[in-house]
């Protein structure tokens, strides 16, 4: 059986320690604060991101450098026969398209998955891929399975709109109006893209509707379930119980790390489901 390196970028919200334990290779992404660039997990951590957000500073992310990506592939191929790379969803980043083009120069030894996944669900898919490889699936077969059968739906509830405003994802006028009217948006991540699916008056109602949104109309046993928080574990603990009561299935609990938190803001809660791939 071929030795296959599993690879993602740091938008998958995985720490260096977790990556080592799971034998997953992570391409760390740049973060820019006040025009100074850092590399997530190298010279900036979650606490620095939280401090910057609390100081109302603009925190932005950018794509990994192509040279860093290609170098990692070359380095991995010195030890492994193939590389299986699952980057951030194509709907939120140009990294996937760049990687797909670059992989053409590696004679089929680098497989890039054009997926709809973001955050910890990327790790879930990579672990599924590993199990499929153990059963004899090729990288091409696993890529096709994930691209055709892989499905993720999530509801995101930001605690406030400050980070979305500072990042230019909503206008200052819209943020101010929402604050005055006490409007709480519920964002969805569907087919890799983010959109607003509902607006309610309180955070409590937003949490309830977020759970209803991700659980509506499906057989819970067909999915893996999770709740993810951005430095908001106390609330996550409470809501995890509610989600488990709604689906009668185990619910994994994870944290938004620097890359995703810099987009959504501190305090954000995410409810998510991932369709189980049959193999």
From TrEMBL:
The keyword Transmembrane helix is annotated on this UniProt entry: no
Glycosyltransferase found in the keyword field: no
Domain of life: Bacteria
Keywords assigned: Lipid-binding
GO molecular function, one term: lipid binding
PROSITE patterns listed in its UniProt record: DEGV (PS51482)
Protein name: Fatty acid-binding protein DegV
Organism: Faecalitalea cylindroides
């Amino acid at each position: 059986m071929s030795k296959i390196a599993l690879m993602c970028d740091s938008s998958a919200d995985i720490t260096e320690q977790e990556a080592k334990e799971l034998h997953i290779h992570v391409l760390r992404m740049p973060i820019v604060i006040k025009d100074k660039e850092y590399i997530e997990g190298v010279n900036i951590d979650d606490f620095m991101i939280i401090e910057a957000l609390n100081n109302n500073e603009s925190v932005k992310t950018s794509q990994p450098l192509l040279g860093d990506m290609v170098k990692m592939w070359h380095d991995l191929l010195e030890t492994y026969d193939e590389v299986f790379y699952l980057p951030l969803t194509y709907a939120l980043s140009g990294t996937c398209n760049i990687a797909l083009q670059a992989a053409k120069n590696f004679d089929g030894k680098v497989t890039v998955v054009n997926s709809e996944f973001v955050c910890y669900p990327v790790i879930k898919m990579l672990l599924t891929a590993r199990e499929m490889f153990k059963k004899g699936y090729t990288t091409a077969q696993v890529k096709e399975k994930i691209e055709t059968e892989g499905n993720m739906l999530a509801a995101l509830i930001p605690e406030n709109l400050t980070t979305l405003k500072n990042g230019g994802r909503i206008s200052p006028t819209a943020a101010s109006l929402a604050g005055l009217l006490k409007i709480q948006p519920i964002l969805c991540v569907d087919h890799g893209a983010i959109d607003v699916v509902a607006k309610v008056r309180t955070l409590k109602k937003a949490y309830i509707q977020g759970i209803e949104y991700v659980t509506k109309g499906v057989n819970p046993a067909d999915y893996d379930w999770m709740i993810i928080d951005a430095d908001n574990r106390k609330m996550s603990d409470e809501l995890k119980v509610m989600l488990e009561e709604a689906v009668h299935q185990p619910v994994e609990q994870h944290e938004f790390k620097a890359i995703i938190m810099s987009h959504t803001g501190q305090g954000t809660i995410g409810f998510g489901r991932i369709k189980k791939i049959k193999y």
